[in-house]
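Narrative of accomplishments. A recurring question from our advisory board has been how the design workflow behaves on a single, concrete structure rather than in aggregate. To address it, we present the structure tokens for one chain from the evaluation set, followed by the sequence designed for it. No filtering or post-editing was applied between the two.
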């Protein structure tokens, strides 16, 4: 059991459940948010060890939310990993410019996902 806290911000319930289940089985404490505002609030309250942030969110998108988290002294040191189906040329630069530590492409590979999360936590 790792006991590490991970916040998942995703508006797609199936993606949220899949990621939560994979992380829960691997010993992580998982928090969920269905939109950016709730994600920011949970990040400030729970201080997770890592945030998995969907890029395409209704209202405020994930990159805007990441920028807000990075400007806040309480949350700026929490690594944010973008979850995106839009991993095309130029997207990685936008993701990194917003303050993300990297990205994981969707649909997530269920065999590799826990290992990728573990690698991001080690950084």
């Amino acid at each position: 059991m790792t006991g590490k806290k991970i916040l998942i911000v995703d508006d797609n319930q199936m993606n949220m459940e899949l990621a939560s289940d994979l992380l829960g089985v691997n010993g992580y404490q998982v928090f969920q948010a269905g939109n950016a505002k709730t994600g920011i609030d949970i990040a400030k309250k729970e201080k997770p060890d890592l945030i998995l942030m969907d890029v395409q969110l209704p209202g405020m998108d994930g990159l805007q939310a990441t920028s807000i988290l990075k400007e806040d002294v309480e949350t700026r040191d929490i690594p944010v990993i973008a979850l995106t189906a839009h991993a095309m040329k130029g997207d990685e630069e936008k993701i990194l410019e917003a303050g993300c530590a990297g990205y994981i492409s969707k649909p997530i590979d269920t065999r590799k996902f826990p290992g990728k999360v573990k690698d991001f936590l080690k950084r």
